[in-house]
Design brief:
This protein is of the alpha+beta class. The chain has four helices and eight strands. Keywords: Nucleus.
Amino acid sequence: MHMGDPSLASMLPFDSIGQIGQIGQIGLYEQPKPRFIFKMPRVVPDQKGKFEQDELFRRLGRESDVRYTGYRDRPTEERQVRFQTGCREGHTEVAFVATGTNIQLVFHTGTNGYTHGEHGRECDFEKEHGKVHLRSHFIMNGVCVRWRGWIDLERLEGIGCLEFDEKAAAIEDAMLRDQIERYNQRLRDFDEKQRAYRQQQERLDTELDARHGGHGGHAAQRHALGHAPPGSVPPGPHPHLPMQYRA
């Protein structure tokens, strides 16, 4: 049996057919590269460290002037109404005056038009006359933070700051670790499949080598004993050769 024998194809896996005749590549199959989609994490690994060291967070972490930024092209009276309406619906837009950082605040609206969080009202019109006190939780630049402050209902200006949200950060950290672990597990599963595939190919190559070696050994043994292999021409002059070609 030799490399060009078509019967060899039936001994190989399907993925090796078509590569017969290429020495050193029998049974080899280049698997497609894996496509692992890693979802962008919502938070950074060290949220508290970034909140304490990042210059922007350090500036926004100090109480400073803020103002309502919605509907700036409308009259003051209309903006006042829209601001209070938005707060009761559970949203508003504010900006830090010093840095120009705009933030969309969102609350969970209650049935009475006021919003309540785990630590009390997140939108409170009753705490101080003529003002609304706000608190909103969100993720900013990969860090869980809490906006806390108040806005004057007439001037639409006030004081606010960002605080590090310990509880939300712990929840997001756990989710991040779980996401990374699931991604690493997929990589380990893929490596294991690759290892099993290579071992299978090595066993296949070993079996093919054994088959080639076995046929060659039998042929040499038959030749040494004076037996011609099946289909071979017996020794001596061929009976159908003309006399001038006979030895």
